[in-house]
Amino acid sequence: NPALQYANEQEFVDYILADQPETPFYFAVMKRVNKVGPALLASLPSVRAMSPGDLPTIAAEALVVDVAAASQFAAAHVPGTINVPASNLVQWAGFFVDYEQPIYLILREQELTAALQSLRSIGIDKVAGFFDAGDVEQAGLKTESYQSASPAELRDAIAEHRVTLLDVRAATEYEAGHIPEAKHQFLGTLMRNLKDLDPERPVVAQCQAGGRSAIASSILQRAGFDVINMQGGYQQWTKAGLPTAHEGAAAGR
Q: For the chain, what is the radius of gyration of the CA atoms?
């Protein structure tokens, strides 16, 4: 066991913690839940279907999560909503949700049970209602979209600092290799650190392959940023032979 090479306690702790993933905010909530027990499903209020006409007002006041695939959301969505695809709810929703405030979902009605199971598994019980995705589309509420572009298409704008390049991967991924001009901001803490970004500059969101940056793009657009999602992310950037950098090392490839 390589960890046993350390005789100093702090060095041992540093080694063990070095490659640990970012801790979701819901861990603190689950610590309490594990101690006192979760809310009984029977005691939770039913999650009612909402009228599409109420969606614009609710999206301006509360967190509305659209669980559609990232490509669908990018092409057309309701202003003020964020996108966390259904398959990623357990992994990411706990970072973005205020556990003391109600949230709303946009999904197909047949997806509701699975989505609630995912959210309740991480202690998110305050789902106040859902909007049927088909009804929302028929109501003509999906009036917003965001751009996506390849690394080659974005290279000049990034190099000339005409955009803010935001790398939303974990710190360990960023340190292992990143685009030289990239500013690091882990996706999970992005919503809490938007004030650190220049609202006057377009933002290019980038991750390893494009999935996490799609979620980031929805959060940034909701906050009023002009955003572009980098298709293929750092993986595609390196495949194209474009410059990279590492922590403590000069740029190059």
A: 20
Placement of tokens 């992005």 in the chain: 190
Over 90: is that where the pLDDT of 213 sits?
A: yes
**Which burial class, exposed, middle or buried, applies to 238 when counting CB atoms under 10 A from its CB (0-12, 13-18, 19+)?**
middle
DSSP string across 45-82: PP-EE--GGGHHHHHHHSEEEE-S-HHHHHHSB-TT-E
Max Cα–Cα distance, the chain, nearest Å = 65
For the stretch 145-188, pLDDT in tens is 999 999 999 999 999 999 999 999 999 999 999 999 999 999 99
The residue among 223, 212, 213, 198 whose CA lies nearest residue 87 is 212
Tell me the C-alpha to C-alpha distance, in Å, between residue 86 and each of 21, 105, 226.
Answer: 21, 10, 25
State the Cα angle at 75 between 72 and 77, rounded to 5°.
80
Residue 101 contacts by C-beta under 8 Å, 6 or more apart in sequence? Answer: 62, 63, 126
The yes-or-no verdict on residue 251 having pLDDT over 50 is no
Q: What's the first-to-final CA gap in the chain, in angstroms?
A: 33
Q: Mean pLDDT of all residues in the chain?
A: 88
Q: d(Cα 159, Cα 151) in Å, to the nearest integer?
A: 11
Q: Is 241 helix (H, G, I), strand (E, B) or coil?
A: coil
pLDDT of residue 20: 46
Rounding to the nearest 10 degrees, give the CA dihedral for residues 165, 168, 172, 178.
Answer: -20
How far is C-alpha 103 from the chain's CA centre?
Answer: 16
Q: What span, in angstroms and rounded, lies between the C-alpha atoms of 40 and 43?
A: 5
